[in-house]
Amino acid sequence: MALDGAVPNLPEVPGIPGLRDFTVIGRGAFAVVYRARQEALDRDVAVKVSTVDVGPSAAERAAGSRRFVHESVALGRLSGHPHVLAVHATGTLDDGRPYLVLDYALRGTLHDHILRYGPLPWHQAARMGIQLAGALESAHRRGVLHRDVKPQNVLLSDTGAPLLADFGSALADALPDALPDALSNTDDGEGDAPVEPVRVVGSVPYCAPEVLDGSPATALSDVYSLAATIFFLVAGVPPFVAAPDETLAGLYLRIARDLPPVAPSSPDGLVRLLDAALAKDPAHRPGGALSFAIGLTDVLSAARRSAADLVVVPRPAAVRALSAGAGLEGRTGARRAVTPDPNAETADLSELAARWRGVRLPAARDRRSFSS
């Protein structure tokens, strides 16, 4: 894992039973990430430690604490998804700071990979998009909005598979009532502390226009950010990037007004799909992350390219049904006589394909060169 920025007054190396040889590999406004050695399992792990107690103001400490709560809950709800960074443990240090023990991704971020080796072929980017869309759809079904999908927050596993990571900006609904004191206490001693300052959450080049305009993030704003990430994979830059000497206001205006450039070396189907997912109006985007994944699958199929596996976890109600002995039908499994429950049939995508076919795609347009 890697976090941007710097932390003043870096806390001491944490003492966590079973882990040793802590080395800082990332620093951010709310956490420090270490690589550590877990001798019992002969592996390296990443340890993300909250720095909420070193923030200069009570409001920032409260915001940092809340971020850590949401990240812990989000990762816990998504445990086991093959394209979400795995969390192994959480706890509290002796000084009260919470921490997470996570998989250590030796190959780094997708952003760094592209900068080092150049853009991906469009079909490889589309397959990664399917895998990440499955992770996002799973998050949305579990009541989690990521709110900061970007190449810097996608890690590469040892096998090269993408792993959605850094849920520090995530928003999780229905937080559990019983949380560790270090996670739940955001009191600044002067009454109720603000949960988080009202501000834009996300990274501007990958942030949906409505979020930049101050509207709350939604599942469709996560879809926009995923589409911008896929664009980066095939172009080497996001759809909208600040020009030399351009003000932030100018960049905001272009994101809100201009059509995205055409993704280079991409078939018309992918260009149109990205145009739809990057629409200014959320109502004109694919109806969700899973619909977007089905669109990517269709593009690959039309080009006679193989698609990636699409993995979506069941909703909590479906999990309860499985524990009671009910089964989920596989995509190629035998049909059951009972009409399937759309909330439980996570492996059979037929009902969701109908959703995708109803999405309005932009009309074919003249291909503009990427440099324009």
UniProtKB/TrEMBL annotation:
Protein's recorded name: non-specific serine/threonine protein kinase
Kinase as UniProt keyword: yes
Chain ranges passing through the membrane: none
Protein kinase domain sequence ranges: 19-300
InterPro entries, sorted: Kinase-like_dom_sf (IPR011009), Prot_kinase_dom (IPR000719), Protein_kinase_ATP_BS (IPR017441), Ser/Thr_kinase_AS (IPR008271)
Residue numbers binding ATP: 48
Organism phylogeny: Bacteria, Bacillati, Actinomycetota, Actinomycetes, Sporichthyales
Alphabetized Gene3D superfamilies for the sequence: Phosphorylase Kinase, domain 1, Transferase(Phosphotransferase) domain 1
Species the sequence originates in: Sporichthya brevicatena
EC numbers for this chain: 2.7.11.1
Pfam family, one: Pkinase
Keyword ATP-binding: yes
Annotated keywords: ATP-binding, Kinase, Nucleotide-binding, Serine/threonine-protein kinase, Transferase
Domain of life: Bacteria
